[in-house]
Amino acid sequence: MAPPAGRGRKLKKIVTVTLQEMRLARAHASGKVNVEVDSTESVDLTQVLEEMRTQYEAVVMKNKLELEKWFKAKVRWENLRRT
User: Fold this and answer.
1) What is the pLDDT along the chain (83 residues), one digit of tens a residue?
2) Which of 3, 16, 27, 74 could in theory staple to 7 by disulfide, Cβ–Cβ 3.0 to 4.6 A?
3) Contacts of 8 by beta carbon, 8 Å cutoff, 6+ apart
4) Would the pTM of this model clear 0.70, i.e. be above it?
5) What is the CA radius of gyration of the chain?
6) Domain coordinates of the chain in residue numbers?
């Protein structure tokens, strides 16, 4: 037995409206997100990088001087050993 014609149209209308609501909800949910941050202090990344570079160059120079000192000591030792 088939449902009355009025009931079928009403059910189709409910399904159509529900699908439209779901589409709208999905479109709304996948929208843009805006985030605002209140920060009192700003970090100057250029200055931070410059400080890191200065520290790095100091370490490089220290290592270079230590290596030269070690090398000269080895050369001196070899020269003394050969004589």
Assistant:
1) 555 667 888 888 888 888 888 888 777 776 677 788 877 788 889 999 999 999 999 999 999 999 999 999 999 999 999 88
2) 3
3) 2
4) no
5) 39
6) 1-30, 44-83
